[in-house]
Write a structure and sequence with these properties.
With 163 residues, the protein is an alpha+beta fold. Helix content is 34%, strand content 28%. The strands form 2 sheets. Strands 1, 4, 5, 6 and 7 form a 5-stranded mixed sheet that branches. A two-stranded antiparallel ribbon has the order 2-3. Helix 3 links the parallel strand 6 (98-108) and strand 7 (135-147). The longest helix is centred in the last third of the chain and has 20 residues, at 113-132. The N and C termini lie far apart (66 Å).
Length: 163
């Protein structure tokens, strides 16, 4: 039985947010324990949110998302009620029993990129597998930028209208 997967970019989702993928096929019948009866479905966006939160748990990760995604995210945060999108910089591919995750990250200056990527990969795999029951086959990480300590100070000073 072949497993079909479909690439989902949750930042520019073209599918309905309610679309779900079957993650585990349950069994039916009275001879099956109650905890094993029925199917479990998890929306692609759920996997993306779990992966985004798990990646952000690593202290050396400053932000998620490429340049344009971060720019749109900054605008969205300034709009009242806009909030931030936890799935920014996260793309997932979800099948019936497996998932693959792609992350675009900004790493803090001074952090070992290889060690940070390993920590992110382990945290994302553990969180997604524990919470969904899916097997995570890969976590691809693209480091788009390095956050320098003085970048925030300059941005904050530039935002002030009155000294």
């Amino acid at each position: 039985m072949s497993e079909t997967t479909e690439r989902t970019n949750t930042n520019a989702s073209t599918r309905s947010r309610d679309e779900k993928r079957t993650t585990q096929q349950g069994r039916r019948g009275t001879d099956v324990p109650p905890g094993m009866r029925g199917d479990i479905t998890v929306a692609d966006r759920v996997v993306a949110k779990i992966a985004g939160m798990a990646a952000r748990d690593i202290p050396e990760i400053h932000k998620l998302g490429g340049g344009m995604a971060r720019a749109f995210g900054a605008v969205r945060e300034r709009v009242p009620g806009g909030g931030s999108d936890i799935t920014q910089g996260v793309s997932v591919e979800v099948g019936e029993r497996q998932a693959a995750v792609d992350l675009d990250v900004v790493v803090e200056y001074g952090a070992s990129i290889a060690d940070t990527a390993g920590d992110v990969r382990a945290n994302v795999i553990n969180a997604v597998e524990r919470m969904t029951g899916l097997e995570v086959v890969e976590v691809n990480i693209s480091v788009d930028d390095v956050h320098l300590p003085d970048e925030e100070e300059e941005a904050e000073q530039g935002d002030r209208r009155v000294a």
